[in-house]
Amino acid sequence: MKLIPGILLSLCCFAAHAAPWPARPVRIVVAYPPGGGIDILARSLADKLSAPWGQPVVVENKPGANTILAADLVAKATDGHTVLMTSEGTFSINPHMYAKLPYDAQRDFLPVTLLVLLQQLLVANPSLPANNLAELIALAKARPGSINYASYGSGSQPHLSGEMLKYKAGIDLVHVPYKGISLAVPAVMAGEVQLTFAGIATSMALLKSGRIKPIAIGGPRRSPLLPEVPTFAELGYPEVQTHAWFGLFLPAGSPQEAALRIYRDTKSILDDPQFRQPQLIDKGYEVVGSSPAEFSDYLKKDLAARGIAVKISGAKAE
């Protein structure tokens, strides 16, 4: 039996569409340098995903330009097997910071899954004569402009959190940008600045040794690792959002089955107690593992909230 060209084309398209994903090695492009929390999580997931996928899963670090380099690379990828792993800066902050980006945060990507949230602490030098948020606000009002807080650059999460706290509490804190969180926390310990926002994993050993002290933490609930530290929300400042997040994205136009496969398999890993506890919970991560639809809804809300914070902060791209 002969097949007319139109039917033959339809069968070929159906066969291509029905081909299992992945059909070749998968590349996870991480928008940050090697060695950080997001890179470690990416490599841990890659190790676990290679077996169910039957393909090598390779992590490629593409840091630079506030995650723009990695996002641009993945947005333009056409192999169907390139995944972006990045944080809130790419999709929720950069669109408000830059007049023009080489990618469109909403048009050029397919959200796959929100992996984890990372609630940050407001920490202080032990010598600061304030041991809680009420005392800090009272001190800042009594001594306007005399208390400094460190961030890792204009528009970074600590900068936006600090400026939102200033705005909502009606206080004057001085922003001191550093070139990374690895410099900001030591600056607090050394007394160069009095405050910064830092992750639980970064802070835990320093808190236990008394080299820094906690003031408050972000998020809707207290961390089980630091149950004695109150949240900004319960202290009356829910607008002070200190969280970062890690998520996975595909280029727009990628097959929906690819997104669903990545989501299902990564969620299975995140839900595994043997992976979840040492890799996530013990490091202060709040596990999410949202579906593509849930992640899309979350991104819309996060983009709006960060836009308000950027406007209040006056942050501009450097």
What's the main sheet like?
6 strands, mixed
Distance separating the two termini? 66 Å
Q: What amount of the residues lies in strands?
A: 15-25%
Domain module count: 2
| CATH class identity of the largest domain | Alpha Beta
Tell me the CATH topology of the largest domain.
Answer: D-Maltodextrin-Binding Protein, domain 2
- Per DSSP E runs of 2 or more residues, the count of β-strands stands at 11
Strand order of the largest sheet: 2-1-3-10-4-11
CATH homologous superfamily title of the largest domain: Bordetella uptake gene, domain 1
- In quaternary terms, these chains amount to single chain
SSE topology string: HEHEHEHEEHEHEHEHEEHHEH
Over all CA atoms, what is the radius of gyration? 22 Å
Structure report:
This protein has 318 residues and is an alpha/beta fold. The chain folds into 2 domains: 25-117 and 243-313, 3-Layer(aba) Sandwich (D-Maltodextrin-Binding Protein, domain 2), CATH 3.40.190; 120-217, D-Maltodextrin-Binding Protein, domain 2, CATH 3.40.190.10. The chain contains 11 helices and 11 strands. The chain has helices at residues 5-18, 37-53, 68-75, 88-97, 133-142, 157-169, 181-190, 200-209, 256-270, 273-279, 292-313; strands at residues 26-30, 57-61, 82-87, 109-118, 120-124, 147-151, 173-177, 195-199, 213-217, 244-251, 285-287. The model is unreliable at 1-18 (pLDDT under 50).
Concise summary:
The chain is of the alpha/beta class and 318 residues long.
